[in-house]
Amino acid sequence: MPALNIAVIGGDGIGPEVTAAALEVIEAAGVTVNPTIFDLGAARYLRDGEVLSESTLAELRTFDAILLGAIGPAIGDTRIPGGTLERGLLLKLRFDLDLYINHRPFHGQPGSIAEGCDFVVVRENTEGSYAGEGGVLRFGTEHEIATQGSVNTRFGVERCVRYAFELAKSRTRKHLTLVHKTNVLTYSGSLWQRTVDAVRLDYPEVSVDYNHVDAACIYLVEQPQRYDVVVTDNLFGDILTDLAGAVSGGVGFASSANLNPDRTSPSMFEPVHGAAHDIEGKGIANPTATISSATLMLRFLGEETAAERIDAAIAADSSEHAGVPRKTTEVTRSIIERLV
Ligand code: IPM
Ligand code: MN
Of the listed 130, 227, 228, 233, which one is catalytic? Predict the structure, then answer.
């Protein structure tokens, strides 16, 4: 295989520490990577005002994939207005590169609530409440009005639902759960439900269930084993995947893939966790979620064998060291030592 050209956006807080660890593990698994580091995120913005220019975006488009650590200023840092980096960098990448699937797998760690469970949340990644629909009138006055809508298109919902059915079909249990709030969000909920009802006709081997999102929060804690593939909208998916990470052993293990399944642009791989500025530079960030995200990247780029070897090493490492706080370098070395 030729070297993989990977754009690396370490970003903020512990981001650069965990992306560096992931690159080390990929190389140790024998995959040649040609990484190009992009200095983007809070520090860059504070230095010269760039969030993500059109020319940087055009350059990013030329890579095989993007590996991202974490984006976001420290809580309480008032120098960067809320949303500047989230909307201007992370969401801009998801939207402009049309990364319409956010694929988030969960493997319940030993000792966690979801121990032994294995499920994937397929989160729609380009629409819903994240679309930026809405605005403000009479800002700062007593009569201020703020609206923030949710955009759901048949096209956007259907391509996400189809991806989820294909995934469910490829898995042992072949089970799909739509999560929404159709009893209250009747317009968008109906569109999601009708789309699932139509697409399922093409997948007779997949069993289908529906949960309201509030009930899904209870089930994730009390009966996580009921899930195989969950499909849901952008905001519900955001919230559910933090909860799913917590019940599976902590977001230190939760990986994600922002995918353009049509391969018209590079896909982006990142841990579910954030920048964790409180532990930045201490060398104690758990790199497992990013290393796991890197295996999603390798799989997507056709490096199946290396991905399997790294996943097996991650599983061996985490079952041996469940719940023990370790240094970033210790975890990285332990995973590399367990590569067979
Ligand atoms: C995530 C994050 C992002 C999101 C933030 C940082 C914009 O929470 O990837 O889940 O809300 O999607
Ligand atoms: Mn989130």
Answer: 130
